[in-house]
Amino acid sequence: MTALAGFKIIEIAERVAGEYASKLLADFGAEVIKVERPGGAPTRAMGPFVDGESTLFQYLNTNKKSVVLDLERAADRAVLDRLLVKADALIDDHTPVRAEAHGLDRQRIAADHPHLVHCAITPFGQDAPVEWQIARPLNVMNAGGWGYHTPSETPPTSRR
Fold it and tell me: Most CB atoms closer than 10 Å: which of 3, 38, 65, 90?
C-alpha cells in the first residue's frame, strides 16, 4: 500500500512546476490523470531529447495516466467535468485569465465541485499583477533567491 493510494488527481498543468507537483503525488501512489491539449503538452517540446522524445516530459510524467482534451470544445470540457466529479484534487498552473476563460477559476471550481482541492500553481500567486503572471523560470529562480546562491562566475582567486 502506498501513502496516497485511493486519491485521484486531475492535472491540467502545462509547465514544469505543476507537472512536478503532480509527479510527486503520483510517485506516492495517487492516481494522476494528466489532461493534455491536442498536439500534446508544451513540455513535450522541451529538451533535452533522446530518440526525439523529451526526457524532461518523460521525467515529469512518470506514473501518470493521460487523456487528450480540447478544452475549447464543449464535449471535451464536459469530459473534464466528469473526471473532476470523481477526483479529490485538481492541479493547474495557468493564469487566472485563462482559467476563467475555461470555467476553471477558483470560484467556478468551488461552486461546481465543492469537494475538490484546487491547487493553482502560478509563479507569484493567483492575485499577482497581470504582468507578473507571465514570469519565466529565470525570473522565478532569481526572485526566489536561487540565482544568488548559484553564481554564474567563479570568484577570482588571489595571487601570491
Answer: 90
DSSP H or E stretch at residue 9: strand 8-11
Q: Is the pLDDT of residue 160 over 60?
A: no
> Full-prediction pTM beyond 0.90?
no
Which residues face 119 on adjacent strands?
91
Query: Has residue 140 been placed in a domain?
Result: no
Residue 141's φ and ψ, nearest 5 degrees, are -60, -45
Amino acid at 102: H
Residues 6+ apart with CB under 8 A from 79: 67, 69
- What CATH number is associated with residue 105? 3.40.50.10540
In a domain, residue 120? The reply is yes
Strand partners, 53: 50
Please list, in sequence order, all residues whose beta carbon lies within 8 angstroms of the beta carbon of residue 3, skipping any fewer than 6 positions away. 28, 29
Alpha carbon separation from 9 to 34, 43, 146 (Å, rounded): 8, 19, 29
Backbone φ and ψ of 68, nearest 5°? -100, 125
